[in-house]
Amino acid sequence: MHAFYASLRNELARLAAQPKTRWFLAASLLLPLGLSLLSSRLQGGGGLSALLSGDPYLALLGGYTAFVLPLFLFMTAADQFPGEREEGTMVLTLLRPVSRAKIYGAKVAAAAVYTGLQLLLLAVVSLLCSLLLPGSAPAVLDPLSFFQAAVAAWAAMLAVGAVGAALVQLTGRATTGLALCLVLYGALKLLPLLLPGLSVWSLFSYTGWHALWLGDGVPAVRLWNLSLLLLAYSIIAYTGGLAIFNKKSF
Questions:
Q1: What pLDDT digit, counting tens, does each position of 99-125 carry?
Q2: Which residues are CB-contacts of 72 (< 8 A; sequence separation ≥ 6)?
Q3: Model confidence over 9-62: pLDDT tens digits?
Q4: Where would you find the membrane-spanning parts of this chain (predicted)?
Q5: DSSP letter (8 states) at residue 248
Q6: Cα–Cα distance, 192 to 197 (Å, whole number)
Q7: Which of 150, 194, 215, 218 is most buried, by CB atoms within 10 Å?
């Protein structure tokens, strides 16, 4: 396990040094603040407050998990696998006395850590704004539900990240890997509009996973079945990506 944690520290440091990571973290701080400021300015006049029609945090979290975090995960995976292969750093990583399974796990875990950090910042800043910012739209959720929604959203993003890590390895360039992920993600997000029956089986239909866990609107049996489905997709994507990584020549 020491080798895994050492690899994880290296991957976390590598991601922290990338401007992309810092920009996404800054967005998770500034977006809820900006939304709260706009909401307070437009309060009482319809506009944004009417558009949100509910808790501002849930509206922001829904957009974040549908667009921002998948983009972050796909960009990160493209940099971690074909990107490092192009730069020649992957060969140096594989020269360490660490198994490929631990290296792969550390890369996926590092992306998951920064995804969770963004969701945590989003929840904390949104909660503080709803409590402290004068004139901001009041929160519908209690404080505990802010973090419950963040954890549920993180679980869905783990599955998306596992799929991205597997897909980018099918290409030889970071830009091609990113394009493949974005095209497939967009197609599968739009497919249920044409064939609604497929939405139940599409992993990318559950980027708003957090909404199912709030309130009592969804039966416990359905939540359990959907949780197992999400877990199955995550395991299949992770093991598939690991198999590709083990056999790939760098």
A1: 999 999 999 999 999 999 999 999 999
A2: 20, 24, 114, 115, 118
A3: 999 999 999 999 999 999 999 999 888 777 666 655 444 554 554 577 888 999
A4: 21-38, 58-78, 108-133, 145-168, 180-204, 224-245
A5: -
A6: 7
A7: 150
